[in-house]
Amino acid sequence: MSVQVKYRIGKSIAFQGLTILLSVLCVVPLIFILVYIIKAGVTKINWNFLTNLPKPVGETGGGIKNALLGSVEVIALSTIIAVPVGILCGIYLSEYKQSKLAYWTRLSVDILQGVPSIVIGIIAYFWIVKPMGHFSAISGSIALAIMMLPIVVRSTEETLLLLPDSLREAGYALGMPFHRVVLKVIIPCGFSGILSGVMLSVARITGETAPLLFTAFGNPYLSFDIGQPMQTLPLIIFNYATSPYNDWHDLAWGASCILLLWVLLLNILTKVISAKWKVQL
Amino acid sequence: MLGGVAMLVSGSVMMTSCGGGNGTASGADSTADNTITGAGATFPNPLYSKMFSEYNKTTQLKVNYQSIGSGGGIQQLTQKLVDFGASDAPLNGKQDSAMMPMAAVHIPATAGAVVVTYNLPECKDTIKMTPEILANIFLGNIKKWNDPKIAAVNKTAKLPATDITVVHRSDGSGTSNIFTTYLSKVNTDWDSKVGKGSSVNWPVGLGGKGNEGVAGQVKQTPGSIGYVELAYAIQNGMSFCQLQNKAGNFITPSIASVTAAANIEIPADGKVSLTNTEAADGYPISGLSWILIYKEQKYNDRSLAKVTKMLKLVQWMIHDGQQYSAPLNYAPLSPKAVSVGDALLKTITYDGKPVLQ
Amino acid sequence: MILNEEALTQRVVSNDIGISVKKEGRNRRSVRHIRAEGVFKKLIFFVAFGMVVMILGILVTLVVQSSLSIKSTGLSFLWGKVWDPVRDIFGVYPFLVGTILTSFLALVISIPFSFAVALFLGEYYPKGWVPTLLKDTVELIAAVPSVIYGFWGLAVMVPIVRKFEAAIGVQTTGVGIFASSLILAIMIIPYSASLGRSMVQMVPGNLKEAAYSLGATRWEVIKSVVLPYTKSGLFAGVMLSLGRALGETMAVTMVIGNTAKLPESIFAPGNTMASVIANEFTEADHPVYLSALIELGLVLFLVTVVINMIGKRLVKGFSK
Asked: Phi-psi category of C259—alpha, beta or left, where left has phi over 0 and alpha has psi -120 to 50?
């Protein structure tokens, strides 16, 4: 008996050890990559780098102001489009989980996740750029929003599904209508899960180049008009990293570093927000 | 509630976005006229961005050139989404008739070259190549570095018995196009089995994405051979082969030898390949890069003012703009190419009338 | 139950609308609520419906844009083993095999790691700064632009893979299916880990406590309570990861070796559908070629559909 108990406890501890080991292991490559980027990029970042427009090869002091502001704008726009749509869709899937439509919607969302980003770019090109007659930031935002959807929808759905039915029933028992139960009870309870899905989706699109190539197009000048071509960080990294010149490689590394720091900052910001809302399960 | 508000916000943003787009299209004509959009080849991008930046300083004209690839540039010009395209390969007859809605002219803007780079740590001498050897390596017929054929032209070099690993570009590129055009010209086997194009069905080897993909692969693998742009090889201090040209001389790739190769008769339409030219000191794997514009410029409500600005820009690029070529490892245009470009620019019309006199 | 409720609401709405105007504020408010409820239900219905419409739209666009290639190559597109843009011969079989091999291999490698992270964060150490750090770091994995993974993979990982290949006595190209599966495995960890963590955290405490009180060890609780409870979420995460692996381009392109030949082993170089599109789309310079690349996108789309259908069957099978 006691041997068996010891064996079971031993097995349990072994499994815990394995879990810790594997968890730590999967951070290792990331740390290498982070060190790699930060080492190459952080020395390139200074005030001029953030506030100047890019300069051609051979001139010093070029910056990424247009790309930085453009990226903020394009990503904010796609978040504004994707998050409400994604959350609403996730609500439908979790509330009507057995319906026929839910099956097809779920399938659609999973398919969407596997559509390569360049294909999404091609689609946005045919749907928006061609009818508009010129490239535009908004077409890039829509392409990115489409890419964000699967993650937002799935994380909303799965988070809401796991909330106990008693929560909903309590709401209904108080005479709350369906939409209030969902928006005031269910969503706040699942807030942290949804938020981490949104975070993941924003992180996913921040570095995407392919869908922007034929949509947001790029722009060497500063532009705030979402109906016109706009520069973004991934485009600038892509262009400058593939050029032969060290000046431009430096810009690309600096921009990659900024991109990472930005996502890091976003993560921290999310932390602060969710702490302020005191969302606990 | 949260969702509802967000939905509203997104709705209103969509509306403003559409409004904004319309506003600029109809209201602010002057900004639209002062912006020229172009797309295409990645190879001349550093040079073009330098030229456009300089031109902006004196004329305030904003040129938005994006290097989305030659094929992409042609495609966007076909759709009339850009004002000009840029390509490393001239349009062939098939493309001209099948894709272009109207006739387009090719204006040569700059020239570059492709170098053959290799990784042989034991060998200190510069490897010499004949077209025959190069083609057979890339066909997979010559498999070892100490092959008698290589040894025959590199008598002094100590060639190791290592296997040759061929590295090629995996992404469609003008660089591949120039390289395969050259191989098709010098080797009938290559021409019939593989052919020329920006992407081909490579008989052997590994693909690397972009110049740095190929360079990275070559640097890591002893015994490998690949090809990259001249500018890339010079900037990154890579070792490259001397290549035998049509006249029989072994030529080291450089701006001077590319300029020499480009010093030939240019046909009136500007479409000419610089590979394997007759020039005695010319490096054989060279190529022009073109600006593509429609012959008739009155389409999509374009104003005459805008068209004139664009043509003046191109004119400046092939004259004063050429001074920026050499510092960036591009070969300046030959006087013949410039005069052909000038003549072509004068054929461009707006509503049937020539724009530049 | 939900359906009944909906029907009930509908009836109430239709009965009350006419007379509600004269009723007191309280009643008016509830009518407004009921109406808002109807609107909300319609809204989420349309959003869900819109998702299906969008996928169909994408499908239609892809079919229309690839019709030129479908007409000229027909079914040989799928089984053809030669991809030769110069001669307009387009066969995608090697890319099909390459895609499926890399994605599944990546999934197999990443699952132990992502589940470990999910359990570490959700079950063993849900609070404290170390787990928070781990969670943020793991989410950061998704944020690194994939082209950077590609550069890093080529510069750092491929030489290690080459040594490993030499040690076990297989083809030593370094780049290839195996290298790209490794880099993909790293990249897809956060998708299943993040969803898995939220799932594991939401397992009701009383369920676990009940198991503990029966004398179960931690491992036994995980095995017989946590995992069964979170199964659907874990699978959803795996499907997300798989989707990401199927569609990933840049990083794969840098390390897969990009040959149009059928891979002979998992260590051989190959190509995936997504990487071929990304590699060649921007330089596709004649209509049939362009159309063939879009058809490749269509095939990838359909493969994703099939794989997801199979995945759904599996989940269903497991749940029963």
From this structure: beta
DSSP annotation of B198 reads S
Count structural domains, chain A. Answer: 2
User: Pairing state of beta strands B128-129 and B353-354?
Assistant: unpaired
Residues C249 and C278 sit within 8 Å (Cβ to Cβ): yes
* CA B261 to mean position of chain CA atoms: 16
Backbone angles phi, psi at B94, to 5 degrees: -60, -45
Please give the CATH number for the structural domain made up of B114-286: 3.40.190.10
Per-residue model confidence as pLDDT tens digits over B115-143: 999 999 888 889 999 999 999 999 999 99
ipTM rounded to 2 decimals: 0.87
Give the SS3 label for residue C139.
Answer: helix
Contacts of A126 in chain C (CB under 8 A): 61, 65
What kind and span of H or E run contains B6? helix B2-26
A221 and A194 in a single domain? The answer is yes
Contact assessment for residue B275 and residue B286, using Cβ atoms and an 8 Å cutoff: yes
Which 8-state DSSP code applies to residue C249? -
- Provide, as residue numbers in chain B, all residues whose Cβ is less than 8 Å from the Cβ of C283: 69-72, 171-174, 198-199
- Domain(s) labelled CATH 3.40.190.10 in chain B stretch across 12-112+288-354, 114-286
Q: Count of alpha carbons within 13 Å of B98, Cβ hemisphere only?
A: 13
Domain containing A9: what range? Answer: 3-44
CATH of B12-112+288-354 given 3.40.190.10, 3.30.465.10, 1.10.10.10, 3.40.462.20: 3.40.190.10
Instruction: Return the sign of the alpha-carbon dihedral for residues C62, C64, C68, C72.
Output: positive
* Same-domain status, A159 and A255: yes
Q: Which of residues 40-99 of B touch C (CB under 8 A)?
A: 68-72, 74-75, 89, 94-95, 98-99
B342, two tokens: 């000038």
- For the stretch B29-63, pLDDT in tens is 456 678 999 999 888 998 999 999 999 999 999 99
Delimit the domains of chain C by residue range: 2-65, 76-319
Same domain, A188 and A243: yes
Residue A95: CATH number of its domain: 1.10.3720.10
Shortest CA distance to A23 belongs to which of C118, C302, B128, B215?
A: C118
Instruction: Supply φ then ψ for residue B180, to 5 degrees.
Output: -75, -30
According to the model, what pLDDT value does residue C26 have? Answer: 63
**What is the maximal distance between C-alpha atoms in chain B?**
82
Tell me the per-residue pLDDT of B84-111, one tens digit each, with 9 for 90 and over. Answer: 999 988 887 666 666 677 888 999 999 9
Q: Which CATH superfamily is domain C76-319 in?
A: MetI-like (1.10.3720.10)
How many whole angstroms separate alpha carbon C283 and alpha carbon B68? 8
How many Cα atoms occupy the beta-carbon half-sphere of A50 within 13 Å?
A: 9
Distance between A226 CA and the closest CA of chain C, angstroms = 23
Q: What subunits make at least 3 CB pairs under 8 angstroms with C? A: A, B
Distance from CA of A224 to the nearest CA of C (A): 24
Q: Which three-class secondary structure state does DSSP give residue C264?
A: coil
Indicate the angle between helix axes A137-161 and A65-95, nearest 10 degrees.
40
| Cβ–Cβ below 8 Å for C279 and B170 | yes
